[in-house]
Amino acid sequence: MKKNALTRIPVILAIVLFMMSCSTDEPTVAVKKKARSFEELAFENYRRGDMETSIYYFEKALEWDQSVNNLQGMASNLHNIARCYVNLGLYENARKLLSEAVEINNNTGNSSGRGDNLVLLATISTAQGEYAAALDLLQKSYDLYAEDKNKKGMATALNNMGSIYLKQGKYEQALQAIDDAISMHRKEKNHAGLAAAYNNMGYLYELTDRGDRAIEFYLRALEEDKFIENSLGISSNLHTIAEFYKNTGDFENALFYYKRASEVNRRLNLTNRLKDDLNNIIDILSSRGREEEKKIYEKALRELEGV
Amino acid sequence: MSFKFKHLEKVVGFFLTLALLIVIAVIVMIGREQRWFEKQYNYTTKFNSGENISTGMQVRIKGIQTGEVKSVYLTEDNLIEVKFQVFQEYAERIRKDSVIKKRSPLIGTKYLEIIPGEANMPVLASGSYVWSEDTVEGKRILSVRLREERPEQIQRILDNVEHMTYKLSDDDEKLMITLVKIQQFFDMLTDEEGDLSQMLANLESITQSIDEAEGSIGRMIYDDYEIYNQVTAIMQNLNDMIANFEELSQVLADSSPEVKSAMENVNRTMDEAMGLMSTLQNSVWLRSASKKTEKAMKASPIEGDVREGGYAPDLEYTR
């Protein structure tokens, strides 16, 4: 019997060691928190337009979510990395990741997540000129968001439909879709969505020769982006406003906004955007005969191009 | 003589062993969360003043906790020597030109912030000395970085002040309304007798209790990990809002076509600030905060709204 008692000791030790090995994983909450911290860093870089760094941090967040099998986090991170790839024009990479995200969302029955992925797939289709396919995807995403009562998502789908109608010259349908998107985003207090929808409404008015309304909406979009400190959006808005003034022959205002846009882009280190702004500034200064000022910007452009 | 277990002794022994195993497992799990088993790297720094520094205080890099203060004491030359630990995974960020600063947000937990060193500088070994912002070398490193990053911001602030002065001389009713609102807000903040001031003082004492896990309320909140997080999240919200007011000069100084919408924007910020204050005054705020934390733990997708116009697609994000 004494022998039996002694044989129990290694068994107990084995159980203790096994339990210790199980318990050395970090608690799920702490890991999820860490994943969200990386995600926050990724968002920060995304807002600054640094897609590469953003992808790096989203991948870190993905690793942590994978370690605790946080499916919702995994799908969301895959979607976000895909979004970065879309912004970089790497559509195939994006599609691959999106198919993984779609699979996870299908398994978890996350309608809004599926809607998000379809919206991004629609963006890819739009970029590739497949408007009918894009509209179809957006309609499906709208239905999925509606299923989940996700008003923010519904507004996004509507706004993006409006954007495609604009490309197709269907202004009545565009007006209706964007207007509905604005109302929904307003109710949801979604400033990022509002900025995009106001911008699109401005663009619609610009296309239909209602300049006064166009500038009003462009400025509203700028305010929304400033409110949420969306540097990329601010840069884009300033450029759009500058283009508007340039097209309407108001060169002084155009110059003012191009300069502001160039300042933002210089800080964001978005060289291509900055070059575009500098070229526009040089064009305007040249047409106004302001040679001395023009030389300064030409020098800046040369330095940027490394000449 | 052989030794035999009775049946009852076997049952008791089994349950005792089981209880012991559970206790060990719980200790190990807690230890893992508290990083008891993780390798820590020790560093030392010195400050001129020990105000706002305490043992157990968080050490952060870019807002993420990377370690904690282990000891604080007064040296013979009347400087404050602070010994702190950094978790293994962040130790390689502590380099020769790293600088440590005290951070005391208006509302929220005080902490030490490490400004990580340049990637080309050598990593400091455990036990090394890290420059603090109070040292000559620390100041030099910080000023070099500031010189690299800040001159344009200073120029912009000066421009904004100039614009603001111009706008203040303008008879603009909206601007006056906004300024009155701001005045009211700061009156609320500075009024020692006011509800808000007392509420903020209460919050400060609550968070201190949370940090030190003292008293029954402190322990209760400390035990509820999510509520604790949410309290600090709300504090952070308030901080962000106050930071927004610091940027007010920039908003006000925007070019004339945008003044109208800028004013609306500022008014909205003020209203939201007032709203948040009244929410905090509500006694059930802790409960609603807990729900928000759950939401905060969820991953979120990037906004997918497409916008027309702007730059050509091939110029959008490429550098």
Distance between the termini of chain B: 86 Å
**Main beta-sheet annotation of chain A:** none
Q: Overall mean pLDDT score of chain A? A: 89
- Spell out the helices and strands of chain B N to C: HEEEEEEEEHHHHHHHHH
How many DSSP helices of chain B?
10
Query: In whole angstroms, how far apart are the ends of chain A?
Result: 91 Å
Structural class of chain B: alpha/beta
The Rg value of chain B, from CA coordinates, equals: 26 Å
Shape of chain B: extended
Which residues of chain B form runs of ≥5 with pLDDT under 50? 209-226, 281-290
Largest interface in this structure: A-B, 91 and 54 residues
Proportion in helices of chain B: 40-55%
Number of strands of chain A: 0
Shape of chain A: globular
Radius of gyration of chain A: 25 Å
Q: How do the SSEs of chain A run, as a string of H and E?
A: HHHHHHHHHHHHHHH
Compute the number of strand runs of chain B: 8
* Poorly predicted residue ranges of chain A: none
Describe, in plain words, how this protein is organized in 3D:
The complex is a heterodimer of chains A (307) and B (319). Chain A is mostly helical and 307 residues long. Chain A has 15 helices and no strands. Chain A has helices at residues 2-23, 28-47, 51-67, 71-87, 91-108, 111-127, 131-147, 151-168, 171-188, 191-207, 211-227, 231-247, 251-268, 271-287, 291-305. Chain A is globular and about 100 Å long. Chain B is α/β, with parallel strands linked by helices. Helices cover 52% and strands 14% of the residues of chain B. Chain B has ten helices and eight strands. Chain B has helices at 7-33, 136-149, 151-168, 173-190, 195-212, 215-223, 225-246, 248-252, 259-281, 285-296, and strands at 40-47, 58-61, 64-74, 80-87, 99-103, 111-115, 128-129, 131-132. In chain B, strands 7-1-4-3-2-6-5-8 form an eight-stranded mixed β-sheet. The longest helix of chain B has 27 residues, at 7-33. The radius of gyration of chain B is 26 Å and the shape is extended. Mean pLDDT of chain B is 71; it is low at 209-226 and 281-290.
